[in-house]
UniProtKB/TrEMBL annotation:
Matching PANTHER family: FELS-1 PROPHAGE TRANSCRIPTIONAL REGULATOR, PTHR40661
Record-given protein name: XRE family transcriptional regulator
Pfam families, per database record: HTH_3 (PF01381), Peptidase_S24 (PF00717)
Organism: Anaerotruncus massiliensis
Keyword terms: DNA-binding, Transcription, Transcription regulation
Domain named HTH cro/C1-type: residues: 6-60
Gene Ontology MF terms in the entry: DNA binding
Top-level division of the source organism's lineage: Bacteria
């Protein structure tokens, strides 16, 4: 389990939570949540932790390295389900480790699943669906993406870009569109592009 592996590595290297947080550029509270299993780092931070301790990201997650080897088209590999994203405006993007799910991708290290919560993306995407996300810092206008608002709130929305503005658009007309203008755009962090969704029965 990630929380146990991180705590063991940190104590083995005699690094305090505060020192680790400083090296990663995050709060000590965030490290505490990781070690108690209340949250999981995003893929980029996970790679930083792995590099810092000289281990693989797969090792930190307790997954076999074979699951992260490049694959050929048509082959399936296991991709981690890192947490929950709510298809609304008021939930954390990464909360828990939900195991893994198969995906047909070439570079599994660059992908993860998030579980959709809420109905703001109905009728195309429903609560409980799995969103396959490619980790990347930016997306094209019109893409579906997972976005962090103010570093905390995770939302799955269609991203529209217009001159001096970024718009987060839900599919469900019952929900309002969010518009970020000028300096407000700095409040947004693109976690990745949604490349596929699937329904779990």
């Amino acid at each position: 389990m990630f929380s146990e592996r991180l705590r063991a590595l940190r104590k083995e290297r005699k690094i305090s939570q505060g020192a680790l947080a400083a090296q990663l550029g995050i709060s000590q509270q965030a490290v505490g949540k990781w070690e108690t299993g209340r949250s999981t780092p995003d893929p980029g931070t996970l790679r930083k932790i792995a590099d810092l301790f000289g281990v693989s990201a797969d090792g930190l997650l307790g997954r076999d390295d074979a699951h992260s080897a490049p694959v050929w088209p048509g082959a399936e590999v296991l991709v981690p389900v890192l947490g929950t994203v709510k298809a609304g405006y008021d939930a954390y993007a990464f909360e828990e480790d939900y195991g893994s799910e198969p995906a047909n991708v070439k570079n599994p290290r660059d992908y993860f699943y998030l579980i959709v919560r809420g109905d703001s993306m109905e009728p195309r995407i429903s609560s409980g669906d799995l969103a396959l996300v490619h980790s990347q810092p930016d997306v094209e206008s019109g893409d579906l993406a997972v976005v962090l608002v103010d570093g905390e709130e995770g939302t799955l929305k269609k991203v529209l870009k217009k001159e001096g503005a970024v718009i987060l658009q839900p599919f469900n007309p019952a929900y309002q569109t969010q518009v970020f203008i000028g300096g407000e755009i700095d409040r947004l962090t693109i976690v990745g592009k949604v490349v596929e969704t699937k329904t779990k029965w």
